[in-house]
User: What shape does this take?
Amino acid sequence: MLAHIHEGSPALAKDRLTEVLIRYEAVIGLEIHTEITAVNTKMFCGCPVAFGGEPNTRVCPVCLGMPGALPVPNEAAIEWTVIAGLATECDIALWSQFHRKQYFYPDMPKDYQISQYDLPFCSGGFVDIEVDGDGVAERADLGGALAFVGPEAVPEDGGYRARIGITRIHLEEDTGKMVHVGGSEGRIAGATHSLVDFNRAGTPLMELVSEPDIRTPEEARRFAQKLRSIWLALGVSDCSMEEGSMRVDANVSVRLRGATGLGTKSEVKNMNSFKSLHDAIAYEIVRQADLLDAGSRVVQETRHWDAGAKRTSGLRSKEEAHDYRYFPEPDMVPFSFDPAWIAGLAESLPELPDARRDRYMAEFGLPKHDAAALSAEHALACYFEDAVALAGTDRARLVANWMLGDLAAHLNAEGIEIGSSRVTAAMLAELVGLIEDGTISGKQAKEVFADAAVSGDAPGAIVEARGMKQVSDTSAIEAVVRNVIDAHPDEAANYRAGKTGLIGFFVGQVMREMRGQGNPAVVNEVVRRLLG
Amino acid sequence: MSAIDLSALSAHQVRDSIAAGEFTAREAAEAAYARIEALDGDVHAFLQLTPELAFAAADRVDTARAAGDELPSLAGVPAGIKDNMNLIGTRTTCGSRMLENYESVYDCTAVRRLLDAGALPIGKCNMDEFAFGSSTENSAYGPTHNPWDLARVPGGSSGGSAACVAAGMTSISLGSDTGGSIRQPGALTGTVALKPTYGRVSRYGVVAFGSSLDQIGPFGTSVDDVALALEAISGADSMDATSSSEPVGSYADGLDQGVRGLRVGIVRDMLDLEGCGAEIRASVDMAAETFAALGAEVGEVELPATRHGLAAYYIIGPAEASSNLARFDGIRYGHRAADPADVLDLYMRSRAEGFGPETIRRIMLGTYALSAGYYDAYYGQAQKARTLIIEDFRAAFERFDVLLTPTTPEVAFRFGEKSDPYTMYLNDVYTIPVNLAGNCAISVPSGLCSASGMPIGLQIIGDHFAEATLLRAAAAFEEATGFDPVPPLVNSLGS
Assistant: This one.
């Protein structure tokens, strides 16, 4: 009834969500599809796994579903799935198999998807997430007290830690892609015809289903981000939400606080960033609460997030009760796994983000926030460790500061990944070395960084070329300071009479004379001494 | 008429004659086409003739011979290929309007192997649509006629493959067998027909009917020809995850080693099934006596769970078929209905127009059996029955090396005689349990029905991957009976 309030409303105010979450509890579960981009070939044939490309160029009789073609399982993809399960504390099935999930759709060549049903490779895992900062406010029930069963307070952040269960991780094949021609924005409505590109069809796809343990949009975001950082640390996928190699759908329902039954859920799709994931769930919570407040009810349906309009809308397709007629895939024999093989994979798991974060805190003395930021993204962590290896452990904090400061700002501004930065780990280490040995000041270093980010030149060469070497020689600085004092007798007298705030004026004049190359610490010391 | 009478020559003899320079492979192909020209207007074994492919293959054989190269095992042997097997350069219609204009884009592994062994691909053989049937009456392109009596069916679904060998149009052929589709037409046409152990021959490229049941196998006029063809097409295939790496035997060698000491079991309860003709029942007992006379240890065994075979099969087979045939949706290939209103309309009309009635019946049966709320009662129960049948065979093969049953409960019937589907399904009552258990089995001619003059087939069943034993038993029986049936139609041609 009141749906129109939000159907037409712009961005959702943050306090609306907070207000709603005081009265209602949201119950959220995520379904996360991740393409296994670590493998060379598709799930059941030898076609290469890649993104995009000329339509229908990475296809063969198997992934096109030609008559008589048969699937042969990609064992590497199965191994990656088991590794993903081990990294998220799942039990690994010793006996498993594929099933056929049957429904007709033009992007699905066989009109069934080879997937898993009651015997997924991985089940019963969990991931711990930590929520801090603004996100804490969404947990209205915690009331700042955090003396709560479930989430555990993390006092140093003013935040909390929560455990999100993983129901299962199974493996399946991705579908092709439909392109609708003639409608608006590629949507099917109004289209005159549709084209299908099967390049993606058959790409190995891990589907992770979480328990409905998530209570806030922020927790959903943190959970998805945590999984992404684990997948990246494992190397299982490039996890690009924009290119669709990681796709997150959310099942959202709300219930009055204190209620035990579950509300009617909607499934929200089409979030192609973590921010969209958060905002779409927040929108959906408020929309559902408003419906209930108005005495109306929530309809079980699939809803589409429109990032532009910042709202979800029903797909308006007739919701059919799907009967997928799952049955065991007869084209493959079931899989039986050797526990020793599983144990071997578990032992060779790489360091995961949380362990890495703790190590950065212990080994390099990084603040928790910095350690977490650097360890969350595998490429960032590798860059950091490469730079520290060159710069020295005692300069790790400085390296971290530069990475989370100027480097992060630069990457953001350019919209690039760290792998594309012209400032390499070796260059950053060199820059930090130049600061630490007093060759350049921190201020000069910012200029050098900016130059290097554009030119790709080594910091040492930039300093050389610009004649930026810092002057720390006391006698040379004393000469300049004396000249400045002599040129400003009134100010010198005032300083000596007690106007000590004029120290900045003298330091500034000296630095100007020295074209910024005076060592600020030495200049300060000399000015005080000669004025005193 | 060509000077070469293929019906009088085995595949071995054709190969050896070519190797000896008595005639060329090209002449063998010409002989095949001449006989097809003479007979196939009546028989209709072929849906498509592929002379370009056959003569190109023949020329390769003749060139190799001229160069003094060693010739492969089936060099110059004319072969028919069931029209559900892909071969580049051919249409693969599966006897269906749905695939009337479908051109193969890759080769079926078994066909490729047969051709690599030097066989000549004469043409694509008629079949019941998508292999659903026991008479070829379900072919969208009209039935094949039995060379023994043109008013009778040749059996099915591989009726075209059986008839072209029976009529001497080709020396060998390939069929596929999901519930008896090789052995039953073999019995009805007096040919030797073998269904290999599940996994023995790659299924890659044969259009799937029941994925857990399908096997490709050969037809021939003698056991040693069938052994030769089986050897050529068998073996592991990286394109079929259910193909077995079990070593392939030299099936054509050792066929003459006899059956002394071989433990032969008559499956008594199957023989006693209602509906089994008295003469057919008697033929199995006579076969047992033959084996005993040859020194085999003959006994009796019961396979009680096979009573559920037909019922289980008509759940599992259609369930898998309903899924396998989903891909024929009018989107990428095959028949597409004109001017669809939307994608659902496109699906529904393309399939309604492209599929024949028996195909639609099987899809509906299978879809129903897998539906929510029915799965356990149908598919689940059928799988349990299947497990029991597997267990029955396993126990029987602890006591016996081969088992004997009739191939079919009756000889070839007349067109239109079996109008209701269930009566038709009963024709496969002896062959179906073997597919459910995954064993190998062969049908060998064991006599002619005194009333109709139509051939009777003896089914010999072997243990998993015991094709060598199976073939040895069949060869001993063949030799002992000295029965070499030639249809009157062929005799009428002279040579």
In short: Chain B touches chain A at residues 84-86, 92, 94, 99, 102, 105-106, 108, 203-208, 210-212, 238-242, 319-320, 323, 326-329, 331-333, 343, 347, 367, 370-372, 375, 379 (CB under 8 Å).
